[in-house]
Fold this protein.
Amino acid sequence: MPRASRHYIPGFIWHITHRCHKREFLLRFRKDRYRLTRWLYQAKKRYGITILNYMVTSNHIHLLVKDTGVKDSLSRTIQLIAGRTAQEYNNRKHRKGAFWEDRYHAVAVESGEHLIRCLVYIDLNMVRAGAVRHPSEWEFSGYNEIQRPRRKYVLISYEDLMNLAGYPHYDSFRKAHRGLVEAEVERSGGGHQAHWTQSIAVGSRAFVETVQQKLFFRALGRRKRPLVEGMELREPVVSYNPLFEAENADIETKNRYF
């Protein structure tokens, strides 16, 4: 099937998921997960994206970011971190061939309560996979950085995250975030929620309709579906997502390498 065209909607919060080729565990080595976070730090400095959360697992990554409205800032970020990570791994292992699936998936997320739920969903990824009992045990994720802000090599934009989540003070946001995570840990991660990895947009009805309007004719065939809390704009069952040349597939299935 031919590739879908790229479609850019500036100024949104995006939950981006990208997986290794054929779901292989190409990020199983700590060295490669570490290097990916270093390239993410470089991308933040070069392209000015606002990082709200991240998760680097053994076979895929999650990024929760807000773009600055600068065209191609997100695509350049993915190109940098994915390209350099793959290059370093292939050179070290004398390997040839694809490291990543050719498309990544991007979901527009509304600020406020929907942002917080997406944040927690990302945090609990490795708990759901059975690799750890608590997100604090997984080194390459944003949970520990959110709870204990850094002074060097800062990836997450703490003030932006606090404001977009709707909290007046960082301490109150951090306390609420920790409480929500603890509640989900007791439920063993809360289970898979496909709308965070397979939708086009998640939020209130007004937010989802705004995204749909901005897609214009590209929104044809996309359906609004109610969730337990809010609504999603769902991609029809086809091979590719119209946003950012994304792959329309569950990113988290059977991620149990530890």
The first strand starts at residue 13 and ends at 19. The beta strands are 13-19, 50-56, 60-66, 105-109, 199-203, 223-226, 231-234, 240-241, 246-247.
